[in-house]
Every structure is written in structure tokens, then in C-alpha cells.
Amino acid sequence: MTSPQSTPARRPDASGKVRDIYDCGDVLLMVATDRISAFDFILPDTIPSKGEVLTRISAFWFEKFSGLVPNHLLSMDPANFPAEFADWSEWLRGRAMLVRKAEPIPIECIVRGYLTGSGKASYDRDRTVCGIELPEGLTEASKLPEPLFTPSTKAEQGAHDENISFERCAEIVGLDLAEEIRALSLSIYAAAADYAAGRGVIIADTKFEFGLIDGQVTLIDEALTPDSSRFWPAEGYEPGRVQPSFDKQYVRDWLKAHWDFEGEPPHLPADVIAGTSARYAEAYEKIVGEPFAPLGAPLEEGR
Questions:
Q1: Res 266: pLDDT
Q2: SS3 for 173?
Q3: Which of 102, 180, 201, 279 could form an SS bridge with 196, CB 3.0 to 4.6 Å?
Q4: Which residues have C-beta within 8 Å of that of residue 119, sequence separation ≥ 6?
């Protein structure tokens, strides 16, 4: 079979930073590409097998927490995808999900368990994170007294998400729904962090997205992946310094050292691409507890 230039040949009905979405009537086909974004920019290079890692880790968490919160996943088996995608099964296997349609809730549900990233920068300015006051004496990678729910707006592609207060979140979606997604986010994070700790992984922070299906709050998009979370090795963890990670922090660090954030993002060196791919695979193996081996053929990008 000749490899298509995009998978599938039909153009997606919507494209995010990483995922291409195909509207199939009552359901959606979500394809995780190997694109990588950082600082809200889509980078010009792809990371081999990244899309599979994201999809398969998400599926693992969806199943693990299905008793805690419903999710939108119907099937990852290409045999169950709409017939129009049959010729692309070889490329969709492992990286595509058939999901129920949901009405997205326009909030990024961020949970922070440790002080790092933008939270650390905010804390250094005024001892708060997203308006939440914290005690003195915290440093880089300090474990927070309790996990924080710090919502943000969902920006259009190319724009930046904006951190908002819980009160502003309630204004946007209503108090009852805001309280529900806050409680769910904190509950899922706590359960995931406890599980991951037993696998030698610290989940420093993560982001959830929810939607409404038949009026019920449902976990959608992805869950607890290296794209939506910071995963740190528990071995060697030490507050006061930046931690090594199993996520795209490696790419973020390279960009900060080699780009002034003017114009288009630069190409990544081959060793950064290979190292990032290895970190994604290691994240899968740590979390899922089995070796990572790609299920599908390499996905060619470019339309």
C-alpha cells in the first residue's frame, strides 16, 4: 500500500495543535499526530510515535478511571471505525480513537501538585499561584500543601491560554458546573498521582478537559499524557532544582536556550527529536507497565 500524504486522505474537519478530528455524524474520529507544540507554537518537526503514546496512555487512564468519571472513548480498533477509513487502518492503529460527540466545556482544568513552571514564576512575584495564597519558603519543585485547581480559558490556536480565578470560571460556565469539574479534576489527579507514585513517577501537574454528553460531565480529549502533564521520576526527586522529566519539558528547555521567540519556531536537532521520542516512550512504559512498541505504521505529515 502506498503511504498517504495525510491520514486519512479526507481533510480533517478540525485540527488542533496535535490532533486531527473527523466528524462522522454521531461520532468523531480523533487522530493524534506526531506534531509537537510548545509555548502555544506548533513546531516544524514531528516526534516519532508521539501520537501513539498520547492515545494509548489516554486510553489506559480512561479505562482505569471509568468508575470515577465517564469518558468519550468508544473504540480504538480500526475495524470499528467508519468504512471510509478502512484503507488507512495501518496508520490509524494505536493513534486514533472513535469517540462520542460532546459539548466541550470551555475551561482548561489544571491541577497543580507541585510548584514549577508558570506557578513558580507567579509564586516568586507575590506568593500566589493563580490568585491562591501559598505559604512562605516554597521553592522550585516543592510539593504544595494540597493540590490546587487553577483553571484557564481555552484559547484559539495560535493564542495563549489565560489563567483565571475559580470565580471567573464560575462566571463562564455557572457555579454548579464549575464546582463539579473542580471536584472531578482534583479527584482524578489524586487517584492518578497515587497510582503513578507506585510506578516511580511524580505527576507534578496536569490538565483535563471535560464536555457534556446527554447532560453528564464527561472526560474528553486526552488524559494524563506527557503533553498534558509534567511527569517526574520519583527517584532522585529533590526540591530546589528543576526536575528531569518524561514529558516535553526537554523541548521547552531547548527552545528557551536557542530561540528568542520571534518569528517562526526553529527546527529541532536530531538528538532532541530522538531524545524526546524516547522520553515519551519511557513515560508510557512507566505508567502502563509494559514495553512500548508501535502498533501502527509511521504517520506521514504534510498536506
A1: 97
A2: helix
A3: 201
A4: 112, 129, 130, 148, 150, 205
